[in-house]
# Entry
Amino acid sequence: MLSIIIPTINEEKYLPLLLNSIKEQDFDDCEIIVADAGSKDKTVDIAKEYGCKIVKGGLVPAGRNRGAEAATGGIFLFLDADVILPPHFLKNAVESFEKNNLGIAGFRVLPSDGKFIDKIFFNLLNIFSILTQKILPYSACAILSKKSVHGAIGGFDEKIVFVEDYHYAKAASRVSKYKFFWNQPFYTSVRRFEKDGRFRVYFKYILAQLYMVFFGPVKSDIFKYKFDHYNENNDKNNLKI
# Structure
């Protein structure tokens, strides 16, 4: 079974789009777990309407770990709440994952909205990811991993405050086989880019990658990253990492 794990906070706008894209898949052997960090909107109600299992979440690493603890599947798919899966994604992803005997996998990510510059940046990121997959394994927004591998590395490091998914992929690749799937893309929102400024966010992620290479995981608030700050209606409920 595949366990799909989604950390959320105030995601009533985007969560239905993701859940609809999951329900429309030609893949039924899965459960959906929403790890909610105390949403004040209709997020939890929406998750219940779609038959999701609800668990208490927190910041992204903690939410993913709490979801994994409640999961019963042998393969985990960690998804951001503002992701949309194209048709056949789950079936193709799981089949390729098992065929290649992988422990961790990343996927080509494309913007679901935004401007032309976003397409350029995402394509450059994807090209970089596939060219460097043997030395810098990359998985973000949609991360596929074996339950056994997740357990072997202790899950997501909850002390990491930024790009914890990069560190997770790197740690998992040390104990299992990793692959970046170019031919199985998914889509994600560019809301953070629009809120913070595109080049500011692009530069921040590039710096975070370099920081990880030379100094290790980001465990201080040097990059000033916040969870849910892009939602103007929830400024008082922001969780700052």
